[in-house]
Design brief:
The chain contains 6 helices and 10 strands, in the order E-E-E-H-E-H-H-E-H-E-H-E-E-E-H-E. The mean pLDDT is 96. Helix 4 links the parallel strand 5 and strand 6. Strands 6-5-4-8-9 form a 5-stranded mixed sheet. The two termini are 19 Å apart. 26% of the residues lie in helices and 20% in strands. It has 185 residues and is α+β, with helices and mostly antiparallel strands. The radius of gyration is 15 Å and the shape is globular. The protein has one domain: Glutaredoxin, CATH 3.40.30.10. InterPro entries: AhpC/TSA, PRX-like1, Thioredoxin-like_sf, Thioredoxin_domain. This is AhpC/TSA family protein. One of its GO terms (molecular function) is oxidoreductase activity.
């Protein structure tokens, strides 16, 4: 399981639209998930220890960001053939177990992960209300284990700034996680 870091934020890059099935049997696109002040697009999965370490923090931060007008969606793009824990049925189970306050959608073809140039789980893309990229960094200092509870909330602070000013912080720390599990071509 390779650990990768996300690239530096490409400020102003426009969000790519999608139309993906959610674990709640609905379909989601950019218009249905964006908030009045921005959008957080997260590439996560069920099996990755980096994601498992922060699932409860993701839920907390997304719920709080909603009060700032930030919408959110989590996209699972891994190939479940080699990682059965990432199956759609398990996505449904995890979303229920953790009470995800955001749509959890499946990118079965992996086209959306490729369009976003997602590299790892978790990979966070924070957009302003014009759907221009303003944040591509970590949730916090957690790795395969959760950081202490009082750690700086990088993602939350950045997205709150985006909601209030339309701009993300100039200095961002890359996210780290497990590589996207691409299908063999």
């Amino acid at each position: 399981m390779a650990s990768l870091e996300t690239p530096i934020c490409d400020f102003g890059w426009k969000a790519v639209n999608f139309d993906l099935p959610g674990v709640d049997k609905r379909r989601y696109d950019l218009a249905s998930v964006r908030g009045q002040n921005g959008l957080l697009v997260m590439f996560i999965c069920n099996h990755c220890p980096y994601v498992k370490a922060v699932r409860d923090r993701i839920v907390r931060d997304v719920a709080e960001l909603h009060t700032y007008g930030i919408g959110a969606v989590a996209i699972m793009s891994n190939d479940p053939a080699d990682y059965p824990e990432d199956s759609f049925d398990n996505m449904v189970r995890v979303a229920r177990e953790y009470h995800f306050p955001f749509p959890y959608v499946w990118d079965e073809t992996q086209e959306i992960a490729k369009a976003y140039a997602a590299v790892c789980t978790p990979d966070f893309f924070g957009f302003n209300n014009n759907l221009e990229l303003q944040y591509r960094g970590r949730l916090d200092a957690s790795r395969k284990e959760a950081a202490p509870p009082d750690v700086r909330r990088d993602l939350f602070e950045a997205m709150r700034q985006v909601a209030q000013t339309g701009r993300g912080p100039e200095t961002q720390v890359p996210s780290i996680g497990c590589s996207i599990k691409w299908r063999a071509e």
